[in-house]
Structure prediction request, 163 residues.
Amino acid sequence: MKNSDFYTDDFQKKARKSQWYDDVTRNLTKCPFCDLKLKYIIIEDENAVLAVNLFPYIDGHLMVIPKRHIELFDEINNNEWLSVKKFISAGIKLVKDEIGVENTNTLYREGNKSGMSLQHVHIHILPITDKFMKYEKQRFVMKFQEINFTPLEMAERLRVALR
Prediction:
């Protein structure tokens, strides 16, 4: 599969549930966050962006990404942290208001055994539904969902909501 095929609507909607996402990360030639297209960004400032996830776990899956390529949370400077914090708060409010959920999770992964797939600091904002977050064997487990909106459709929807 060619890299350009990874960004088709069908691939983006099915990548997580079909396990195709592993193909994406194995075939990357550059950092997707350093090369993030404006069409996926909901809001930004000079330090960070709030964007839709290109391969979402669930509709409304957002990410906060520092603009500077950094690989460890400890590398975030004070100005970047203020932007990240501002966009986490904005993203949580947006998800609750526009997706219609009461609960959200923020997720940050660091380290080879954490499930992290990209080497650029990013924080996930996840709408939590009963189908998505299941309590199994005394722990919570994420179940990837069918995606109804492409990342582009979700980005436009959320940008409109901010107007």
Observations:
- Residues 58 and 145 are 5 Å apart (CA to CA).
- The two ends are 38 Å apart (CA to CA).
- The beta strands are 41-44, 48-52, 62-66, 103-107, 123-128, 133-136, 139-142.
- The longest helix spans residues 78-99.
